[in-house]
Each structure stands twice: as C-alpha cells, then as structure tokens.
Amino acid sequence: MASQDTEAAERTYGNFIALLKVAIPALAITTLMIIVLIAD
Length: 40
Known about the structure:
Elements: H1 2-39
C-alpha cells in the first residue's frame, strides 16, 4: 500500500516540476515585457 502511495506522489511531483519548468520562464518573459512597457 505504501509503495503505491509513493509512486503516485512521485508522479505528482514529476508533473509539478514539469509545470514549473514551463511556468517560470513564461512568468519571467511576461514580467520583463511588462517592465519594458512601463519603462517606456
């Protein structure tokens, strides 16, 4: 039973990390674009 919970947790964690790898650069680009627009 515990091994199944661990496997599910590892899958969830892996999906979370994959999401962060996409979300962080996207947020960084969006933030830079906003800063550039405000600076003008």
